[in-house]
Amino acid sequence: MPNSIALTATLRSIRAKLDLTQEQLAERLGVSFATVNRWEGGSSKPQKAAREVIAALANEAGLNGANEAEASESPAAAAEVTRRRRGKASAAVPSTKPMEQMLWDAACSIRGEKDAAKFKDYLLPLLFLKRLSDVFDDEIDRLAEEYGDRETALEIAEGDHSLLRFYLPAEARWGVISGREAFDWPAKDKPRDIGEHLTKGVRAVVKQNPSLSGVIDVVDFAAERNGERDINPAKLRGVVETFSDPRYRLGLADVQPDFLGRAYEYLLRKFAEGSGQSAGEFFTPTEVGFLMAYIMRPKPGEDCHDYACGSAGLLVKLQLVARELDPTSKVPLKLTGQELQAESYAVAKMNGIIHDMQIELARGDTMINPKFRTPDGKIKTHDVVVANPMWNQPFAPDVFANDPFDRFRTTGGITTGKGDWAWLQHTLSCLNDKGRAAVVLDTGAMTRGSGSKNDDKERNIRKWFVDRDLVDGIVLLPENLFYNTTAAGVIVVLNKRKPASRKGRIVLLNASLHFRKGKPKNYLPDEDIRTLAATFLKGEPVEGELANITREQAEEADYNLSPSRWVAQGAAADHRPIRSIVADVLALDEQARAIDQTLARLLAPL
Question: Is the pLDDT of residue 438 over 90?
Fold first, then answer.
């Protein structure tokens, strides 16, 4: 197998000869489906041990000495095997379903022990440890290719940890944790069970990799309460076994960062479904995050910030979209985020590492103590800000009357009651002279106070933003997308440097009908996300979907910025001609008379 073309032909020939799908071939090779998919696509190559197994399978298939003609015919034959087994589904497109099933199986195996808000604390560090271990194995195999064998590679890695992303001590490697590899524990340190083993393992990882402190060691797997373990060791062992399934390997060649990240977010979503409002605080639906990223269109090297970052999903999506828009660029975005909750902060750190992204994170209350500041103590400004802060958060005006950063008094005044516009005032303080932002808020923030005879602080802040031409547009989302509410949200887009064609105007996009029913939540279809973003950025009026209003129109409406106020939507009615309806009624009358006559004949003898 001298090159990837020959490897692709060999793998397809094996599948054709042995009548195997990619999934079945993956099982025979002891790797994941995604790995086989990559090998066949030529985007990665197997390492030495895997090549030996492939060679043995080629022998079994009678492919030794196969000529070029046979190899050239095999792709079609292999594809035919796939079509026969899978119907219309394409084998070339990896699915997150197996990964999702693994994650949820693991969650269900301990759900009786902990409620949803708690068992995430155990599963996510375990998932992360599995990822670290699989990547460590991949990197050792890479060194083994270079230095001759795995034993030598391990010795070299132990002497120079900088050769690896993260160095894992032996007791924390998944083979040892799962019991598939032996480890000689010192007598005084030998754990009694899997809970103690995992706790010792993650602490050993942190000792070797201080940057993972507070990320992977956030729970004690052996914690006890009233003499009983929080998590039963037998159930914990079941989770480890689920994660040990060879189909679910999480190494560098097995899954792309985004592929793993989507499955990871699936798990977060399931926690949100089970936990209600508290879980919804740290999760923004994936498709909403991508819509925000496509509207922002981040450029390589731009400074991007999320001041209520939760699991850092919005920042991750900005980077993914930036790569898609400019795939040749090697310059990453500068990503920063602040999060109040310790658990969500740890999840954000894991999410960044899983996606192989550098995200600078800080903990703290953004409204009271924004952590990202300039050397002279002012709030640091950014090119792009994205956020989904808590909706309708109670806001105490007296706390901010003397705001040291002067975010409120000079930008429309200090609000009362709900804090949605206070978040937008903070957003504005985070933007540089060319900055733009996308912030998710409750729909009521666009209308409260408009049309009222009484003075309203929220309406006055909206007026201030509109009068200074800072509002680029509003996107009304469908109902029942979010996990802490069934209400529809809006994406508020701010821009401090609008293009000439949008100056003095506000784009109002009503996307409320762009959804599909899901269980338990609706969702935006993937194929609609880019279209909606493109429609918003183009800004041209679309009947029943988009209005482009002037500042004067906004003033006439007393600064009601709800897209539904300007863009009415309704299901299209199918109006038939009266003549056609009358004809149908007459035909039904004829049918009724015929039935009556038939029934009379049948009943006459009686």
Answer: yes
Distance CA 202, CA 219 (A): 9
DSSP, collapsed to helix, strand or coil, labels residue 516 as: strand
pLDDT at residue 86, as a whole number: 36
Residue 499 vs residues 430, 471, 505: alpha-carbon distances, Å: 20, 12, 11
Closest alpha carbon to 261 in 90, 72, 100, 26 = 100
Confidence grade of residue 68 (pLDDT, cut at 50, 70, 90): very low
- Residue 549 bridge partners (DSSP): 506
Helix (H) or strand (E) holding 360: strand 359-363
Distance (Å, whole) CA 294 – CA 592: 59
Q: Rounded distance, CA 71 to CA 39, Å? A: 16
**Integer angstrom CA distances of residue 153 from 141, 150, 164, 208:** 8, 5, 11, 18
The amino acid at residue 565 is R
Residue 422: closest CA among 382, 462, 385, 456: 462
d(CA 36, CA 529): 30
pTM over 0.85, yes/no: no
pLDDT recorded at residue 277: 46
Q: For tokens 């689920």, name the residue.
A: 242
Quick one: average pLDDT of 448-477? 92
CA distances from 392 to 339, 368, 420, 448, 595 (A): 18, 17, 6, 11, 63
DSSP state, residue 87? T
How many other C-beta atoms are found inside a 10 Å radius of the C-beta of residue 402? 8
Q: Is the pLDDT of residue 298 over 50?
A: yes
Q: Is 304 within 8 Å of 318 (Cβ atoms)? A: yes
205-209, 250-254, 512-516: least confidently modelled range: 250-254
SS3 of 417-475: EECHHHHHHHHHHCEEEEEEEEEEEEHHHHCCCCCCCCCCHHHHHHHHHHHCCCEEEEE
Q: Residue 498 has what pLDDT?
A: 96
